[in-house]
Amino acid sequence: MLALTVLEQRSRVPPAGRSAGLIGLAGMRAYWLMAAVVLTGCLLDRQGTGGPAPAIDASALDGATAHDGAVPDAGFDASAPPLCVTGETREAACGSCGVQPERCEAGAWAMAGACMEEPPCVSGAIEMETGACGRCGTRERGRACGGCEGWGAFGAWSECAGEGVCVPDETRTRDIGCGDCGGTQTVTESCDAGCVWRAISTGACVETVCTHPLTGRRVCQGDDGVFGCEGGGLGVRTCTCDASGVFSGCREFGC
């Protein structure tokens, strides 16, 4: 600024004649050129040295953490939902055909034990299953072990075997024979747990009989064969009674 002031004062000195004017014109140009150089220097002094910017140590940025404003690792997503609920457990596959216990810690699955490499069954083994069917019968079906793949699906059921004659708790009523003269009686039966009929009530035996008037022997409806003749001879004597139970007489053969 001091040099610029001196130049301005010298430019105002009046020239002495023509020679002095020519010399003053050349001097003016030199003065203004010097003023431009000085002015440029002043501007540079105000704006700084104009030297190269100091280098930035990149290693300082490499060691920055989330606490000093550095960007966190792109592989971590803090907004991602948890994979599980803390405290949950499960079994995960491991090795060739093993299982390993896992436990949820802080929303992620973590190992909770050693890998168990034992297969679930012996390869080629057959397992049979028995089930009830029909009237107290049984049936079977089987499945095979595939080693590391575990047990396969069960096959079809076999035919029902060993069935009884009825269904448990079933009831029925029927007439059965009774007495020695072809009588009948009504019986009510219930099917037990072993699928067998058991009588729960029995009616009276109904049969048509009569009594021989001489011997007092019971005579059934129809022929009642008796060895021996009435008079003591050898032969066969048959006596009958009718449908109403009245004695009808006897017939002798070979007497």
Output the structural class. Answer: alpha+beta
What percent strand?
Answer: 25-35%
Q: Helix amount, in percent?
A: 10-25%
Globally, the shape reads rod-shaped
Q: Secondary-structure element order, as H and E?
A: HHHEEEEEEEEEEEEE
The largest sheet has its strands arranged as 1-2-3
Tell me the number of strands.
13
The number of helices is: 3
Return the domain count: 5
Q: Are there runs of 5+ residues with pLDDT below 50, and where? A: 1-23, 47-76
The largest pleated sheet is described as: 3 strands, antiparallel
How many angstroms does the end-to-end distance come to?
Answer: 183 Å
Radius of gyration: 64 Å
Question: What integer is the average pLDDT?
Answer: 74
What report would you give on this structure?
By secondary structure, the protein is an alpha+beta fold. The chain folds into five domains: 40 residues, no CATH class; 33 residues, no CATH class; 45 residues, no CATH class; 32 residues, no CATH class; 45 residues, no CATH class. The protein contains three helices and 13 strands; from the N terminus they run H-H-H-E-E-E-E-E-E-E-E-E-E-E-E-E. The strands form five sheets. The protein has a three-stranded antiparallel β-sheet, with no helix packed on it. It is rod-shaped, with a radius of gyration of 64 Å. It starts with a helix and ends with a strand.
What secondary-structure arrangement, pairings included, does this model have?
Blueprint: H1 2-11, H2 17-47, H3 58-62, E1 89-94, E2 98-105, E3 108-111, E4 126-133, E5 137-144, E6 171-178, E7 183-191, E8 197-202, E9 209-211, E10 218-220, E11 224-227, E12 236-241, E13 247-253
Antiparallel strand pairs: 1-2, 2-3, 4-5, 6-7, 7-8, 9-10, 11-12, 12-13
Helix pairs in contact: 1-2
